[in-house]
Amino acid sequence: MDYDATWEKILAVKPSATNAIPSAFIDWDNTPRKIDRGSVYIGANPESFKHYFRRLVEKTRDEYLQDKLFVFAWNEWTEGGYLEPDERFGYGYLEAIRTVLSEEKEFEYTLVDFNE
């Protein structure tokens, strides 16, 4: 499945109710579990996610009139949908979220250097 095309579909959805909350996803690959019956997104990476996540944050604020959105999934390793550091992208997805939320003025944070 095409990562970009799926994100474009997500971003085209209009709020279905006043309490609707939009959702983002990092990646999906359940082929290790389902082998030839599995599904995998092609094109997922932190930079692409950052681009689409920014657009979803703007849409959430402007169309959904919400200050929250869901991100699938924190630790769904079996399905390839996790938001944790890994060997491939390190902290890339987490950094993308932090950068977008900071640049969009959706949350303020203070970086702490624990090595000092």
Q: Which term fits the overall shape?
A: globular
**Major pleated sheet:** 2 strands, parallel
Helical percent range?
A: 25-40%
According to DSSP, the number of beta strands is 4
Count of domains: 1
Q: Report the average pLDDT across residues.
A: 90
Task: Walk me through what this model shows.
This protein has 116 residues and is mainly alpha-helical. It has one domain (3-12, 21-103). The protein is 37% helix and 9% strand. It is built from four helices and four strands. The strands form two sheets. Strands 1-2 form a two-stranded parallel sheet. A hairpin with a 4-residue loop joins strand 3 (75-76) and strand 4.
Pick out its properties.
single chain; 116 residues; mainly alpha; two-stranded parallel sheet
SSE arrangement:
Blueprint: H1 3-12, E1 23-25, H2 31-34, H3 46-62, E2 70-72, E3 75-76, E4 81-82, H4 92-103
Parallel strand pairs: 1-2
Antiparallel strand pairs: 3-4
Question: What's a quick, concise take on this entry?
Answer:
With 116 residues, this protein is mostly helical.
